[in-house]
Amino acid sequence: MEKALKITKVEASIISLMGRLPILSYYATSRGWSFLISWGHRLAGLTLVGYIFAHIYTLSLLFTPATFDADMKFLRTPVFTFLEWALAIPLIFHSLNGGRLVLYELFHVREDEIVIRWMVALGLMYVLVVGSFFIEESAQPSVAPFWSVTVAISLIALLLVFIKIWRTGNSILWKLQRITGAFMIPALLGHMLFMHMNYLTGHDSKTILLRIQNPYIKGMDLVFIILLLFHAGYGIFSIITDYISQGPVLKSLTFLVIAIMSISAYFGIRLIVAL
């Protein structure tokens, strides 16, 4: 029999503090912390879906660089800077918790307490590193070396999950959801780091337009937008099917999700190709 993992004083204090919050306390008591983690994963995912749509719109302003730069200057206020940094929180939580689920489902890593402890520790480190870039910028990162390493790690993660999952009896869409998730975990975390190491990297029209002219970056962005929108669309569909049974309402909502993601993919791909 496995021994229960001993909770540290810091973890006990955090759990005690969270338990005092009315909503968290109620669901932690009635449904358990696993329920809260599951819903946290979904809410973080939905937050990121909203950001994807906003990101596509913002990048469309690059067709008129002056407008893009004016908007970026407006967004560089303390409030919007804080919100931009805060986006690292749902990103790291959704990514690392998705990795935890992959380890649990496919690689039979059942030591959830240990995995969650590492997830929290790595998540805090990542958020602090991103925050440090907002406070004190580093030099603009070199595009080719950074993305070569990031894509290599993403492809290794994809391959490991593909080998493990493809011959299982699950549906093709379920498999693709896990495979795309495995690829996007290092890719998206790398993307946020890269874009915020230096302000010009992600906020200056000339810098962005020059970078996106690189065929390698353009091709990578096309892959990202397709995988992201598939992963997001299937994630939303999964939430819907948890609450709506088979019938005309489910079919209508499924069609709506497919339509929204397809239209977003069309504009995203068109944008990347045209810039």
What's this entry about, in short?
The chain has 275 residues and is mainly alpha-helical.
- The averaged pLDDT comes out at 87
Binned, the helix content reads over 70%
| Pattern of helices and strands | HHHHHHHHHHHHH
User: What is the level-2 CATH architecture name?
Assistant: Up-down Bundle
| Content of β-strand | under 5%
Low-confidence stretches: none
Give the number of DSSP strands. Answer: 0
Overall body shape? globular
Estimated structural class? mainly alpha
Give the CATH topology: 3 helical TM bundles of succinate and fumarate reductases
How many helical elements? 13
Count structural domains: 1
Q: Give Rg in angstroms.
A: 20 Å
Write down the CATH class: Mainly Alpha
Largest sheet data: none
- How far is the first residue's CA from the last residue's CA? 59 Å
Describe how the helices and strands are arranged.
Layout: H1 9-19, H2 22-30, H3 33-60, H4 65-75, H5 78-86, H6 88-106, H7 112-135, H8 143-165, H9 172-196, H10 199-203, H11 205-212, H12 215-243, H13 248-274
Helix pairs in contact: 2-3, 3-6, 3-12, 3-13, 6-7, 6-9, 8-9, 9-12, 12-13
What does this structure look like?
By secondary structure, the chain is mainly alpha-helical. The protein has a single domain, classed as 3 helical TM bundles of succinate and fumarate reductases (Up-down Bundle), CATH 1.20.1300. Helix content is 83%, strand content 0%. Helix 12 runs antiparallel to helix 13. The longest helix has 29 residues. The model has no long low-confidence stretch (mean pLDDT 87).
